[in-house]
Write a structure and sequence with these properties.
This protein has 8 helices and 12 strands. With 295 residues, it is α/β, with parallel strands linked by helices. A 6-stranded mixed sheet has the order 1-6-5-9-2-10, sandwiched between helices. Strands 3-4 form a two-stranded antiparallel ribbon. 43% of the residues are buried. The chain binds zinc ion (ZN). The site of zinc ion has 5 residues, from loops.
């Protein structure tokens, strides 16, 4: 049972590991602790944002949106390797996941990869209580590149938290390794990233790879998405990513809402609105007809 780091300890760990940090607003107290538990901390989770541009990505991850309030992670890792701290405590990033994976992450007893998750976001184990989360700026379309500086920051930030908690690299997982309905971080080979983190952890925090910097570890084989339209693919990926809201209802029960939940609500509200407009148009036509006959 690991007590989560304080904001100060979190920041100090990142800086000691050579991470370039940018503090955003009231990040040390910006969290979702009023909606559910934070801790025990059991690991680090890596994501992609399905967005582009540092400022917009940081803003979304800090504020969230109506259906999924922020913060959406602890740190946003931009393409130049800067980690923007947007929240500390419980954040909306991991959603529901597979309890079997959590057990293996805690034990750090798996091989290359944790067992493939069979539990999705809805009804899954509450990952927002258990994981630190880093959102990496990437479109998640399998084409957007992962610059070496960004991968270096993922390695350092993850290693910093592992070092502070006394964990090994197997405490670091990708969102897709946690939840059966997630695909991120698409384009980063997590086994290779864990190798990098493990190597780093054998050295002091101040260690630098120098000129022998590895490139992106071999990405996993992709399951082809049944569309050739990259915009549709990105949208699809985005829908998978936003379906990670875990909230506590009035009775203290945990409720997970997937993207479909919001789409259904949007459709229902749009239909209701359309009916209202239809009625208004009809009434207006009647009124106009009435005015015409009177004039
Ligand atoms: Zn994710």
């Amino acid at each position: 049972m690991a007590k989560p780091l304080s904001a100060a300890a979190f920041l100090a760990a990142l800086r000691a590991e050579g991470v370039k940090v940018k503090e955003v607003g009231d990040w040390p107290t910006h969290n979702r602790n009023h909606k559910g538990p934070w801790g025990p901390a059991n690991g680090v989770m890596i994501h992609h944002t399905v967005t582009s541009g540092t400022d917009a990505s940081v803003r979304i991850c800090r504020d969230g949106y109506a259906a999924l309030p922020g913060p959406l992670c602890h740190g946003v890792i931009d393409k130049t390797g800067v980690v923007h701290l947007v929240g500390h405590g419980r954040t909306n990033h991991a959603g529901g996941g597979d309890p079997k994976v959590l057990a293996r992450v805690i034990a750090e007893d798996y091989g290359d990869r944790p067992p493939k998750p069979t539990q999705g976001n809805t009804g899954g184990e509450d990952g927002n209580a258990r994981f630190y989360g880093f959102e990496c700026v990437n479109l998640g379309d399998g084409k957007d590149p992962w610059p070496p500086a960004q991968l270096d920051a993922i390695e350092r930030a993850s290693a910093a938290l592992c070092r502070a908690h006394g964990w090994g690299a197997k405490s670091v997982v990708g969102h897709a390794e946690w939840s059966s309905d997630k695909v991120d971080p698409r384009g980063v080979g997590m086994p290779g990233m864990r190798d990098r983190i493990a190597t780093r952890l054998k050295h002091p925090a101040s260690w630098s790879r120098g000129s022998s910097k590895p490139t992106n570890p071999a990405p996993p084989k992709e399951t082809p998405v049944a569309t050739t339209d990259s915009k549709v693919t990105a949208l699809h990926s985005n829908l998978l990513t936003i379906g990670s809201l875990t909230e506590v209802d009035g009775k203290g029960a945990r409720v997970n809402h997937g993207a479909g939940y919001y789409l259904a609500h949007i459709e229902r509200d749009t239909t209701a609105l359309q009916l209202k407009v239809d009625r208004l148009e009809k009434t207006l036509a009647e009124v106009l007809a009435l005015l015409k006959t009177k004039s």
